[in-house]
Design brief:
heterodimer; A: mainly alpha; two-stranded antiparallel sheet; 2 strands; 77% helix; B: mainly alpha; two-stranded antiparallel ribbon; 14 helices
Chain lengths: 329, 313
Amino acid sequence: MRLRRTLAGAPVRELGPIYLVMLAVVGANFVLEPSLLSSANITDLAVQVAPFVLVALAQTMVMLLAGIDLAVGALVSLASTITARTLGHGVADLGVILAIIAAVGCLGSLTGLFVAVLRVPALVVTLATSFIWEGVALKVLPQAGGNVPSGDAVYFTGALFGVPIVVVLIALVLIAWATLRRSPAGLRLYAVGNNPMAARLSGLSVIRGHMLAYGLGAGCSALAGIVLSAQTSSGDPNIGTPFTLSSVAAAIIGGISLFGGRGRVAGAVAGAIVIGMLNNLLLYAGVSSFFQYVVQGGMLLLIVGFTTWRRMRLARETTSGPAVAQATA
Amino acid sequence: MSVQTTTPRPALKPSLRLRVQHNRYTVAAVAAAVVLYLISLIAVPAFVSFNHLTSLLNVAGILGVVAVGAGIVIIGGGIDLAIPNVVSIGIPPLVATLAVGGIVEGAQLMYTSGTPKSASPTVLQNAANNHVVVGLSGTPLIWIALTVMAVLLLSRTSLGRSIYAVGTNPRVAELAGINVRPTQIATYVISGVTAAIAGLLLLGFTATASSTVGDAYLLPAIAAVVLGGASILGGQGSAIGIAAGVFLLNTVTSLTTVLNLSNADQQIVEGGILLLVLAAYSGRLNLRRGSTAPWNPPEAATTSQAVPEPTGP
């Protein structure tokens, strides 16, 4: 019953705080830099923040299972290097791209299997796998380089009816997720994340839930890596590194619970946009690069504090019993 | 403290066997470190020298110092994401760590004006580079001193016992009258101090202050703590084990370096070893607090016949 309520709960109230913050940050960008208010510049901003949104989605999948994925950055790098090394076969490249996403997704599923079977905290498992994937990425492409043919890059950098293809891709991912979430597999994912023991006692497979979530997450990371490669027309074995920890922050700001089984993917998208635009904001505000980390850290604390406070109040108002204990304990 | 002969109680001092069993992850970590070191001696005959051991310790020192602090935070459950939020506004510890990390980094950048400072005080350079005792520079000596202090703190003081209690189960610790929040804050402060010491040593070692050079130590430090037998969920681990984890990690690095493995292969090998160790330690979660971490039902439930085998929907 509670799961149903979480899924069908009032999305506006749940997502309200983070979308308010997002509007504020985006609005502040436009106020400080009015020239951004042209359709070309807005498109640029969307394209620029798109890969990070995908990585935040990847992190969200794993966090819904009460895990945390320190390997997202390494997976992005891995996909980026493979892309830069393998493309160049004309039309067949579309198949290659799909194969890369599938292969990296399988790596994620393997990680999920490891976490579920050995019952080791995801934090350390993904720390270990991040070393391995990073190493493999360095083997594929020791330093930034390689080549993405412009004929392939256009799949990701082009526009469809004036809308950048990456934005369309993210929309497709979100639609696919919305469909999945209502399917038995999606319900299982939330159930396993919410309470693995209860899920198992109800006959749900914890292992399959983990493999699905980690696999989907790795697929999103791979897509982000491919998009980055297309945008820069090259591969880079270190390109994903900065995404790892900031994706966790984006998901948390977006209301994805660290305890699993709670939160909406749409929130994580907003969280990613907030973090992505925060950097721009500091730039436009003329904050010197020395202060940038300080201001960024301080604003992050403020935002997390605000959204968490709102969410705790919401939890107190709308639910009772164990939910309150979970949200406030 | 002498146990009076008239007391009917059994001896308060646990037997050696019990102590080994209680500290089995520490024992395992130390054993793994020693075995791996011996293997490296066999594999690379050039390693059989006192100089190699001291240079290994010299290099390991900085990571060792960072790991002491990180280990205490982890034992206190600070990185455990399953811990209920103890920070008053409900910010999970990890996020707070991230944000505070950003602030500290920024402060460093301001101090160094963004460019690496080349002038480091000679006293630091001496401490980091000059051999103080038998080929050891100041760094490993500080590491050893901090490890001894951590051993004493964790096992001989009430703060140390509180850290274990809070790491094991903050709710129960609170009910038992422990001030949970101050205890956790104390672990972060300790970790901050050790990180600062490591930063100073690094400053002496590289003779340049750069604000990003410390990033490279965060994740390896967590890896070393885990290799050293501490549970990432908190409540378990020891300073000796953590030191062993650091030694182990550095032995692997020196081995892969001397075997001429590329940076890439080195990372793969280190990640693989970490996975192996995790697999070896994985049974632990069933031994302790079976109700929170694993999704296998606790003893009573598994034995009941009514539990269906997991099947797909």
